[in-house]
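Progress against Task 2.4 (sequence-to-structure conversion) is shown through the following example record, which the project officer requested during the mid-term review.
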Amino acid sequence: MSSLDAIDRHLLAILQSDVSLSIEELAERVGLTKTPCWRRVQKLEKSGIIRRKVALLNAEILGLPVSVFAQVKTDQHTPEWADAFSKHVAQLPEVVDCYRMAGDYDYLLRVVVGDISAYDRFYKELIRHVGISDIISNFALEQIKSTTELPIPSENPE
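Structure tokens generated for the chain above:
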């Protein structure tokens, strides 16, 4: 991250907010001409800092208003089980985030569904294919903050 200058950081901040901007608009906002701006964006993509460009969809409008945070516990701590679990979860479109955790539970899933019945179907599909010893499901009542924008460290962290 130390190889990023102020212009790269500015580019990243802008792109996180609106990737649909043209190179011309982007260049103007960061004070560059088109070609150097395009080269910088290409460098950020090739370095892996920019992983991909996506459209962020509105779950409510799509009929997916329910977010469930499922804490998963297993008593099978083998590489084979972990691999099977990871592969299975990756195939479930309802799972939008999955983390392996330290603490009382082994995994945390964020599951997006249309209603409680849809979550029940998801739950039954999940437990049918992988050995899980416990799941605690927490239903979100309100989304206070949601962002895909990462805080970009300054050049000289204090």
